[in-house]
Specification:
Family: Belongs to the isochorismate synthase family.
Strand content: 25-35%
Pfam families: Chorismate_bind
Helix content: 25-40%
EC number: 5.4.4.2
Protein name: isochorismate synthase
Keywords: Isomerase
Oligomer: single chain
Shape: globular
Number of strands: 24
Structural class: alpha+beta
Number of helices: 10
Length: about 475
């Protein structure tokens, strides 16, 4: 694992990485300047709905976690931690603890998302992002500036500066002052082609998955596919974020290190001893337009009675409950799912909640990142049993998922935070700003039909196709 500790830079030099960075635990790292963190309350009316900021941030590599106008957005880079291979979660956690031990924090707001926070994104598979790969298996980014809002328009808003000096960065004013904002441009004409596998080949992969399930190798497997998009102009993630946050406001719109999306699935939220996980499994395409409301109600009723989708959902809920149980003193697991209505699809959904147990021997309760690591991969994105499903994915899926369907989110100095599953997402190419890789996956059980699963994957690609429209 490597850690990159960046000194404060001018606004026109945001994000330029240091050529050499000390490793956590080394004498050089511990002797480097401490992060100085200042959180102050913003005046009423600022910044308003965070959605309105997403395409106006001063950095083309925004950091974001926003839902219904609340959340946190960041820009610049005060610190970067990178982890590799199977130990990526634990290594990132250990490096973060070292950062906390050296930080000086002044927080007059004291709400989730204020003070020292970091955004993170991780690879799906232990075998992805190993030491020989070009990209790490996990990345934690501490921004230079964070703007947050909690409690809606009448709630509390704040700004946090994370620097190695004393002054608030000058570019905060340009973001909060509407008269000084310059919206980003769209990507122009976008063309898409099949990614690692053609649509026809992918249905054959699904058929193979169904056959393995029917012969008893496993009970469920989640199989994914990718689509490659090429844009006329360089793709700016801020453009995508604003469109996603407006159209999919019930989802968690995120951007971390080139991974952008609007996920409907909350892997885990940890807040003051309470944990929540929103589990999704079981999907049906939704008809568009207001005139289709009656049809959507019929589809929702069909989904709620579908034995195939209920079976898929039951596996996903059980895997989350089993993973959380060792960390909780009490839990609530719903007896039946509800139907989550999104613009493009309907999902079966369950909110699993729990109360964190105190750590043994005086040790602290697990952080939200530790909980995310324990939950990943759930049956909703891998399958049941987990090991058999993971092995089958590696054998037949035919692509590297990279950070698709893996934890993405944020956490703070107290360990609390929110981690989603990187679904309805895309990865911007680090080599070519015109190229974007879109992902979609489907849960496969014995009753699955390959053609229907292909249609479901197309429905799940709609949000990212929409995000790239000019």
């Amino acid at each position: 694992m490597t850690a990159h500790a960046h000194p404060r830079r001018d606004a026109d030099d945001l994000g330029a990485p240091d050529t050499e960075s000390p490793r956590p635990g080394s004498a050089d790292f511990l002797a480097s300047p401490r992060l100085v963190v200042r959180t102050t309350r913003l005046p009423d009316g600022l910044p308003g709905d965070l959605t309105a900021l997403l395409d106006l941030l001063p950095d083309a590599r925004p950091l974001a976690w926003v839902r219904r106008g609340d959340g946190i957005v960041g820009w610049g880079e005060a610190l970067r931690l990178e982890a590799w291979g199977p130990g990526r979660f634990a290594d990132a956690e250990a490096a973060w603890q070292e950062v906390l031990g050296a930080a000086v924090v002044h927080d007059e707001v004291d709400l989730p998302g204020s003070g020292l926070v970091a955004f993170g994104s991780f690879a799906f598979d232990d075998a992805s992002g190993t030491a020989g790969d070009a990209r790490p298996g996990g990345t934690i980014v501490v921004p230079r500036v964070v703007v947050g809002r909690r409690g809606g328009p009448e709630g509390t808003a704040w700004v946090t500066s994370i620097t190695q000096g004393d002054a608030l960065p000058d570019d905060v004013a340009s973001v909060l002052d509407p008269a000084r904002r310059e919206p980003v441009a769209g990507p122009g004409v976008v063309t898409t082609v099949d990614g690692s596998l053609s649509a026809e080949d992918w249905t054959a992969v699904v058929a193979e998955g169904v056959e393995r399930i029917r012969r008893g190798d496993l009970e469920k497997v989640v199989l994914a596919r990718d689509v490659l998009a090429t844009a006329e102009h360089p793709v700016d993630p801020r453009w995508m974020l604003r469109r996603l946050a407006v159209a999919y406001d019930a989802c968690w719109t995120f951007s971390v290190d080139g991974m952008v999306g609007a996920t409907p699935e909350l892997l885990v939220r940890s807040e003051k001893g309470l944990v929540t996980s929103r589990v999704l499994a079981g999907t049906i395409r939704r008809s568009g337009g207001a005139e289709a409301d009656d049809d959507s109600l019929l589809r929702a009723a069909h989904l709620a009675r579908s034995s195939k989708d209920l079976e898929e959902h039951e596996y996903a809920v059980a895997s989350v409950a089993d993973a959380l149980a060792p960390f909780c003193s009490s839990m609530n697991v719903p007896d039946a799912p509800f139907v989550l209505h999104l613009p493009n699809v309907l999902h079966l959904a369950s909110d699993v909640t729990g109360v964190l147990a105190a750590g043994t021997g005086g040790s602290p309760a697990p952080t939200s990142l530790a909980l995310a690591a324990a939950l990943h991969p759930s049956a909703a994105v891998c399958g049941t049993p987990t090991l058999a499903a993971r092995d089958l994915i590696r054998e037949i899926e035919g692509m590297d998922r990279a950070r698709y369907a893996a934890p993405v989110g944020w956490f703070g100095a107290d360990g609390d935070g929110e981690w989603g599953i990187a679904l309805r997402s895309a990865e911007l190419s680090p080599q070519d700003p015109h190229r974007v890789r879109l992902f979609a996956g489907c849960g496969i059980v014995a009753a699955s039909d390959p053609g229907a699963e292909l249609a479901e994957s197309e429905a799940k690609l709609e949000p990212m196709r929409y995000a790239l429209e000019d």
